[in-house]
What does this fold into?
Amino acid sequence: MDLCCPICGEHFDFTALQKPGGITAGSYCPKCQARVTLIIPSGRRAAIISLLIACVILMLLQVRTIIGFTIGIVLIWFPLSLYLNALAMQRKPLTLRKYKPGRRTFSEWLHERNRLPDIFDQRNR
It folds into this structure.
């Protein structure tokens, strides 16, 4: 899959992205070494549309019991959602965006909060 760097504008293969540890750390462009983020199309719309289609199908089949409705939703919604997600991936492929650091996690916030002030740091003396 061919991707285009948003910073330098160079085209390169998806496998050429340099990835540091972790999935949220962003990747590096192989040409300019700028930090970029891989944007995957969201499947929310496909999931909602497939759920609505599954509900309409079950209403047309006149399913009246809760158990039948629940089993029918699971049997229709899941494969239909996978199919619509595959169609969405074909229509809107993967793209790259300039990396923007996310918010700190709770554990990072706790670590910074419990750190000693700089006046107690032994290296400064």
Summary: The longest strand covers residues 35-39. DSSP finds three helices and five strands in the chain.
